[in-house]
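Write out the 3D structure for:
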Amino acid sequence: MLAVILFLLLLILVPLIFYLSSRNNSKKIKANGERIRAKIVKIEKEPLYRYNTKSSSYNTIVYRIIAKAEIDGEIKEFESERIYPENLSKNIGDRIFIYIDRKKTSSYFVDIVQ
């Protein structure tokens, strides 16, 4: 019984800790990172599966913005977090800001709300 309770706690706490740490990381990068302009080159659809009930299915589509920018003479590609359709207000060709950590360019934040 104790093992089941520990497993359930672990099942809940690990995603919660991951979510909170990634959210804080985005805030840090936005506050301290270098802001660059990027051009949206693609908007991808991807399924977000939730759960099924007897009366209906709660499957929906989410989007990711793919943008490119030149950093130190090299073109880099950046991918946004998942965006729900009602929050998607950008189009291909629009310019957006990307905040990057110069020490670790794989750490970045795509600002789609600007």
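DSSP finds one helix and five strands in the chain.
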